[in-house]
Amino acid sequence: MSRFFWSQRTVFAACYGPSVASPSTLSPEPDGVVLYGMSELGHPVRSRTVIVEGTTDSDLFQLAAQLEYEATSTNLLGEELAIVPAGPRYRGGASAVIRELVSLRAVAKHSLLPDGHPRYRDMVFAGQ
To answer: Where are the domains of the chain?
Structure first.
């Protein structure tokens, strides 16, 4: 992806996904995290979800993935990765990423695997 994706600024992103990436960890019925993603963010939450500042950042990832696919037939996003903007256009930003991450953490703490471990984990990538 680095061949096509270059930015002069750092993208603030939060990565959210199941603690173990396998079909058995995904709930057969939509849980609170999935429902929150669809209702509040307007995008599906997949096994690997990256929350970016806004639609411009999301569009850049989509474009990079499309160009890589055209050049190498490699699908960078696949079925497990979603790039989700924290807000449309100017309603995004770092504060929106933080807001959505805090909300997702609150919802995710109630989504557990049968053995009692958390279904989701999160990581934050930040830059200046």
So the answer is: 13-125
